[in-house]
Amino acid sequence: MAEADDKAISTGDEVISQELLDLSTSEAFSISEVDTLLCVRPVTVVTLVGDAHSGKSTLICSIYDRFLHDVFADRMSCGIQTIVALEKRAHYERLDSGMQTPDTARTPLSEGLQYFHFAFTSLTEPYHREDIVISDRAGELYNRARGNPELVADLEEFPKADIVCILMDGGRLADLEERAGAMQIVRQTLRMLTDTKAVNLNSVVQIVTTKQDLLQQAGDWATLDGRLDVFRKKLNEDFGPRLKSLDFFTVAARDPTGGLDRAFGVDVLLRSWYGQLKSRNLPSISELIAVTEFDKLADRFQTWEHRDA
Ligand SMILES: Nc1nc2c(ncn2[C@@H]2O[C@H](COP(=O)(O)OP(=O)(O)OP(=O)(O)O)[C@@H](O)[C@H]2O)c(=O)[nH]1
Ligand SMILES: [Mg+2]
Fold first, then answer.
1. Based on CB atoms within 10 Å of each CB, which residue in 77, 90, 106, 115 is the most buried?
2. Are 40 and 29 a contacting pair, CB within 8 Å?
3. Range 42-274 classified under CATH 3.50.50.60
């Protein structure tokens, strides 16, 4: 009993086991680990959506990379609970992994849904901590879901999201032959998500154009920029009224030429994520973990009572 007490932290009415706070394998979180974290403290949950190659994993790596080195987007990192998983990804993209130019490994379908955790403090309020988890999975699944909206019901990242971030592949936009297709993918994704109610009037949705460096290198950049403006306005007209908000961002998470700043535009995106928490119906802490032997016994009695009733 004394040992259990040593491990416990009192937070008002609840006693939370230290084990619960630790979650310390430092690998990526599963969705149930995100639920556990949500019981301990407020966490902003960001769902990244985008076809294969659109830049989801690179965006996450760029946030990690910036916080490793410096203050970023007015925040300092104060704890990353998935650091081993992030390091593995970052190693692949670093030149010390033996590659000529930095790259990101494709996320395999078999990895399923994973979350990467960040915690920040603000420079002006150093005692105020904010937690964000960002989802990642193989884009191939989103590609399949566009063709078969019934699959959306199985995508647990949507009910969990505070922010749904749809990536539009700037590499494809820069290519004249692929441009219309890249825009169409985003429109179809929004249609699929609104029609299936995976996003609704309570949803904060963002369209993030990636690989801005490649866009700017396109021969017809000025025309393309104008066309993108028209596309965004039309999306806003068609889908804005069905959402809480629809906003647009542009990033170059990793410009290999170094022409644009590292993580260009990612700071603006990150700032838009701060404080975006919606109220949730969470399982109580006692549903997730029985802290002491007495709790476990009481739990068993309750189960028997329910069964016998
Ligand atoms: N030029 C340029 N390339 C980028 C940028 N961001 C990502 N890329 C490249 O785009 C490719 C795809 O990026 P990923 O982050 O793996 O894309 P993903 O959406 O995670 O793809 P899946 O894991 O297959 O779903 C990689 O080769 C990246 O190096 C960028 O800002 N500029
Ligand atoms: Mg990936």
1. 115
2. no
3. no
